[in-house]
Amino acid sequence: MAEAAPTIAPAEEIAEALIARCGPEIRLALPLGLGKPVTLLDALTRAVARRPDVRLSILTALTLEPPEADSGMAKRFLGPARERLFGAYPVPEYAKRLRDGSLPANIEVAEFFMLAGRWLGVEAAQRHYIAANYTHALDVVRRWRPNLVLQLLGQDAEGRLTLSCNTDITADLLRDRQAARLDFLMAGETNSRLPALPGPGASLPREALAFLLQDPPDFDLFSVVKRPVGAVEHAIALQVAGMIHDGGTLQIGIGAIGDAVAHALIARHEGRLAALQQDRPFAAPLPRDLVSDGPFRQGLYCATEMLVDGLLHLFEAGIITREVEGAAIHAGFFVDCRNFYERLHALPPEQRARIQMVPVSFTNQLYGDEAAKRAARRDARFVNSAMKATLLGGIVSDATAGGQEVSGIGGQFNFIEQAFALEGARAIITLPATRRSKGELHSNILWEHPHESVPRAYRDLVVTEYGVADLRGKRDEDVVKAMLRIADSRFQPGLMAEAQKAEKLARDFTLPPEWRRNTSEVLDGWLRPKALPDFPFGTDFTPVEQRLLPALDLLSQAQADKRALAGLIWQGIRGGAGARARHVAAMQRMDLDEAATLGERLEGWALLGALEASERGQAAP
């Protein structure tokens, strides 16, 4: 480890010094997500791009980028709101060059987890993806033997440096360096917007750094935009909330389902869950041995790789209160919305001390002080989302049927494995029963899939909006029936036929009538009167933008079907002046209130038709 204080210099000088000290082969281990010091990183990328005699290999994950909006409705919607929604976050230059094909041959990037859907169809990114469970990513980095680590750092009130958002792998790499198992330089960039959280291994002595950026720009942190929580997500969450044991352990992920689960748990704590669950019309109930209700008097303990906004709300609501070694939450990394960062910053010191950042070798596995971890993680519920599930209980979470990597396995398998290793623990996989793609409805429950992220030997609890399938230790025939029971009724006959053809279901089996109620219309009829919030924890979308979101989703689905698109245009024309008056603010927001060309008039009519249809809860015509 370096003995002197770091050299403080501008980014360009640090980049040249790093090249000089690391030599012609730079192997850069770069933190995932928010932990990337973009100013330093871009300076190094530019310097290496000018030096064909130097090679830069970057090993990282979760490169953060706002969605592209180069044309059409996406450009009209996101263009004026991009900075407000995502922050003025500087996308790393390597990502921009990789995407447009201008990354020079002497720079390569490999990721073990991708921002969901952002690298589909990008050949270099797909070819260089590394399939690794999160806890095994450390071993990948170790075998790769980095000679450089760059990291974005926080500072506490006393000016002490902290790994802040990314103790996940860096804390263990630093321990390896201290034990002389690895030898690398480390350079850092501070950002005053980054909350400084405590935790074992989270603090960073200045002498651990070779270089520290002079006058860091304090760029905006990437803000994850909250998506609306609809009836599907709320229905899933109302069931999950009834399976979390008071005094137990919780892990949930980011996104609409995670927000919905946190909202439902708060409703339960406040005595409102039973009323929300009342009159549920679907046949698949909660497993009797898992039913839990009432407020959280003992409180929950959280061991999670990712600290998300939903967990912070549960902490603030007095639900996550059970402490283990002084912490109610142990987490490996964080990235979320702007409000999340602000609330972390504003926590009183005594509350901030109860949220501790640790490596994922602590959160994602039981190895190392296993007895203490087992005692702490009692009645654990690990809640994670999937893309698809098979009728035999296999889980698809990261890749398409064609082999394109959508995101990565991350820590999902780690927590499912813990659920099988811990007494009383369960893995809860959530997924909507259906999805729309190119205007067509598809089932997310399939007979088979060429790739399974989690093999069926680890099948446990699967939750859709239509119920819970308890699969652990069950015979294949019973698993098939349980999955059919929570599938959308429009797809049940075809799925049943596949299972019967494969001799996994008796030929004379028929679907009970009460199973055939699994439709979106029945779901909407149950939950609409309950007036559940679209954004349980707030949003950066304006009221007009919130009104536009379902219409734009409807319009997006119609783009793949000329008849559906023509139907929306006709609805817009037929709506006339009355429809324009009702939706004038939305049309103005999209700059389509005064169309100048035929193309703009067609866009305007289509949007108007989508606004009218979504207001009535219609699907695309």
Percent of residues in beta strands: 5-15%
Mean pLDDT: 93
In helices, the fraction of residues equals 25-40%
Biggest sheet statistics: 9 strands, mixed
What distance separates the N and C termini?
Answer: 65 Å
How large, in whole angstroms, is the Cα Rg? 25 Å
Oligomerization category of the chains in this entry: single chain
Number of strands: 22
Characterize the overall form: globular
Q: Helical stretch count? A: 24
Q: Residue ranges: pLDDT <50 for 5 or more in a row? A: none
Based on secondary structure, the structural category is alpha/beta
What does this structure look like?
- With 621 residues, this protein is an alpha/beta fold.
- The chain contains 24 helices and 22 strands.
Keywords:
single chain, 621 residues, alpha/beta, 9-stranded mixed sheet, 8-stranded mixed sheet, 24 helices, 22 strands
Give the helix/strand layout.
Blueprint lengths: L6 E3 L1 H12 L2 E5 L8 H12 L5 E6 L11 H7 L3 H5 L6 H8 L6 E5 L11 H5 L6 H11 L3 E8 L5 E2 L7 H9 L6 E6 L12 E2 L6 E3 L17 H10 L8 E3 L4 H14 L3 H5 L23 E7 L1 H8 L12 E6 L3 H9 L2 H4 L2 E3 L2 H4 L6 H7 L3 E6 L2 E3 L4 E2 L15 H10 L4 E5 L3 E4 L2 E4 L1 E2 L14 E4 L2 E4 L5 H10 L6 H10 L18 H8 L15 H16 L3 H21 L1 H6 L8 H18 L6
Parallel strand pairs: 1-9, 2-3, 2-5, 3-4, 5-7, 7-9, 10-11, 10-14, 11-12, 12-13, 14-17, 15-20, 17-21
Antiparallel strand pairs: 5-6, 6-8, 15-16, 18-19, 21-22
